[in-house]
Amino acid sequence: MLKSKFKFRALLIPVLIIAITSISAYIITENWPIKIEGLRWIEIYMTVLFLFTWVWLVFGELRTKVIEVTIENNTIEKRNYLGLNQKYN
After folding, report:
1. Residue 79, domain extent
2. HSE (side-chain half, CA atoms, 13 Å) at 9
3. CA distances from 41 to 5, 19, 38, 45 (A)
């Protein structure tokens, strides 16, 4: 039985997701409660940019990078990060 191994590049993406999430949570807790009238355009822009980057990393990059392949006798099994399996004969 052959089983694939993750490369460093595939493991870097979850680290980036955790880093972006923790930095965003820290910024929000330091500035809580948020005063709507005090928001500047750069804060809104950075919030949208962080949110877009987080969604792109989770649903775009992880979907294509974190795939486990197992080759057994007559079958090949492909499993992605959500746990969805596909078997091929």
Report:
1. 2-88
2. 4
3. 44, 24, 10, 6
Best CA proximity match to 74, nearest among 20, 1, 11: 1
Q: How far is CA 65 from the centre of its chain?
A: 10
Collapsing DSSP to helix, strand or coil, 39 comes out as coil
Contact 20, 53 (CB under 8 A): yes
- Reported as a single tens digit per residue, the pLDDT across 32-70 is 777 777 778 877 788 888 888 888 877 777 777 777 788
Distance in angstroms (rounded) separating the CA atoms of residues 67 and 47: 30
Q: Which residue has the tokens 């191994």?
A: 5
How many domains are contained in the chain?
1
